[in-house]
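Changelog note: in this version the structure field was regenerated for every chain. One regenerated record is shown below for reference.
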Amino acid sequence: MKYNRNDTCHCGSGLKYKKCCMKIDSQNKEDTKPSIQTILLWLKTGLENFDIFVESRKKVLVKDLAILNENTIECKFYSYSENTIDVKGEIATIVGFMYGFLKDDSFENLEINYYAVRAYDKNDIEILNALSYKDTAKLIGQGNSIDWLKSTLFTENTNDYRLGIAKKIISEIENSLRYVIENILFKKYGTDWWNISLNNKMGESIKNTYYEQFGEKIFDGKILINYTYVLQLKKIILTHWIEFKHLFKNKEVFETVIDQLNVLRREEAHNRIITENSLKELEKIYNILLEKISTEYENLIPTYLIDNWRLRIKSIMSHKLKPLYRPEEITEEKDLIEKLNKIALSTKNLINYLEDTIEKLESVIVPVQKKLIHEELVQQFTILYNLQKTKLEQIKNKDFENLESNSKAIEKHENDMKIFSGKFLLSES
């Protein structure tokens, strides 16, 4: 197709042809498919000139564009903001543009199924990345950004994100400790547990805190416990250590992690920047303090741990197997020896993928409420892993009789995995 100078450029940038790709096209007058590098150049030009034809949009500061694993296009860019919502807005713009650029399948040498975007701050530190499936990216062009946000896998590292997570972790730790204190001391001392077990200066101080705030004197421990701070919770538990020691590794560890928590609590309370290392430390404290509590008190749901588990599972499952051969390259192979070799290599590739997946799944911290379904998930992959290992041995030994029956077992288990996948998605939706 011939383009006039003032036509809208074919690359999707929205610019006139003369101001965009005319010069590039003129360098190659033969009617050939554009190379991947040329396509990426067109796409980069369009992104960098986005502000020209959409006044409300800023220029996209592209750091790099690349094709990953043949089916993923990745854009790295420098964000104008470090606010999570704003950065996600920038990412949505980029994903929408890339999908629109590639959606007509005019580039036969590219089959893009995933859109990856990585945002960097001015110090060249990655602050947020996103991975969208092809059908998910399509939602942006349809004006359905809310569903795009829900369906896209994000990994965040912005200041406000880390602060928000820190507040959530600390809140869950404090409320969990308050819950077990009330539960245990109520069982031992009855309804007047506060006045009996905290008949001291600290107990009176907390009563005064409530009085100063609401102008009312109360003696109900169920209410007063909510006005305790980290170090007060520490003191209550240590004072009654015999009743609480079964919930923690030991006294020294408990004291150490509570003191660490208090330091981070002060930073969070004043909305100071929570570093990535501080967040990792908080997660470690969370797991140490709540590990046994979440087991003993199953109704005390650790939502952060569950949300984090779901995010990890989603991330692991997003890494799909990259086949060595197209199906027809195996089925249409005439040479039996070569065909067996391709099947063996494909099977080995699948075994390695399954082994990595199982290892990743087993490394995830699992909340007690999700223990059974997580074990079942690992088991599903383990069964398939063992079946594929058997298949590889049968191919190597040319044990075709048993290979046939094993192939049927693999087919049956793959169907079982589809059924389980539906059940898993339903339970975690």
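Spot check on this record: The chain has 19 helices and five strands. The chain has three domains: 17-157, 161-300, 309-427.
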